Amino acid sequence: MTTSFGIAQRTKTATDFSQVMKQADLALYAAKKAGRNCVKIAQQP
Predict the structure, then answer these.
(1) What is the average per-residue pLDDT within 21-41?
(2) Is 6 a residue whose pLDDT tops 80?
(3) Helix-strand-coil percent breakdown of the chain, rounded to 5?
(4) Where's the GGDEF domain (predicted)?
(5) Domain-by-domain residue ranges, the chain?
């Protein structure tokens, strides 16, 4: 079993829940692309 995580946080420009989830989703796909057992933090917009 392997895991990948995408992490995002609310910022001044990304205050809406859907915006934060979109950033987390992008980070998750970056983690999956980077390999197994990886954590990526979302880029600040």
Answers:
(1) 94
(2) yes
(3) 40, 20, 40
(4) 1-44
(5) 4-41
